Amino acid sequence: MAPTARTSRPDSVGANAVEAARAALLEAVGPADVGEHQGVRAEGERTVSHEFACTRRGYRGWRWSVTVTRAPRQRSVTVNEIVLLPGADAIIAPDWTPYRERVQPGDMSPGDLLPPEDDDPRLVPGWSAGDSAVDALVDPSSVRPVADEVGLGRLRVLSLEGRDLAAERWYEGPQGPDNELTRQAPHHCRTCGFLVSMSGPLGTLFGVCSNGLANDDGRVVSLDHGCGAHSKTKLSRASAPRKLPAPVLDTVGADDIELF
């Protein structure tokens, strides 16, 4: 038969030292901030904590905890510490979050700086277009223009992980296919004359909208995104404005003219 686990019970001497704990608390914080005794909790062998309500303004739901202990075969206790602890309904500050994890899109203001980390997985070292050719037989003039064109003259370039993260973020965002604007659109951006194509692998999924009257003007949109400003959009007969009749000139009737 498996042994039964012993229940941790508060030391009897420490549990009965309510007044000693209260006296130490009153001496430390004053009577105005101390409320009624709320219970006792075992902390270890011959060590217990007495809890008292905190009546200090602005600390609703907090409690004072006075820890007392005693030596073996002693009937008097010693106060170890007095702390103020939050309860279940106490108002406390949220968990601390590092600065880089708190920054969200749109937080940047003019003059703000947000440098990438040295080990940012979205970036990898790029080949410098200004480096001299390693091979003496290679004409530098034929290499540098190509390197500049594809962006290899930068110190760091977008990594495969960075590209995939951007593609996932764009596709799942408001310029992707999963939104009400696209579901009610007559056509997709893939066939729109206002779509500016993108080069590279991202161009197989995305382009840039150049319709100045569209919601997504100047933004990257997925090819299966859509809106009502598509270049092939036409109004149906029911939606088209009614044609006004030709004006008629009344040469018989007379109108009253109000004089000022």
- Class from helix and strand fractions: alpha+beta
The name CATH uses for the topology of the domain at 12-86 is Nuclear Transport Factor 2, Chain: A
The main pleated sheet reads as: 4 strands, antiparallel
Element-by-element helix/strand order: HHEEEEHEHEHHEEE
Cross-sheet strand order for the largest sheet:
1-2-3-4
Assembly annotation: single chain
Extract low-pLDDT stretches: 1-7
What would the average pLDDT be, to the nearest integer? 86
Shape: elongated
Strand content: 15-25%
Query: How many helices in DSSP terms?
Result: 6
Short overview:
It comes from Solicola gregarius. With 260 residues, this protein is an alpha+beta fold.
Structure notes:
By secondary structure, this protein is of the alpha+beta class. Among the domains are: 12-86, Nuclear Transport Factor 2, Chain: A, CATH 3.10.450.630; 119-157, no CATH class; 161-222, no CATH class. The chain contains 6 helices and 9 strands. The radius of gyration is 38 Å and the shape is elongated.
List keywords for this structure.
260 residues, alpha+beta, Nuclear Transport Factor 2, Chain: A, 4-stranded antiparallel beta sheet, 3-stranded antiparallel beta sheet, 9 strands, disordered N terminus, DUF3027 domain-containing protein, DUF3027
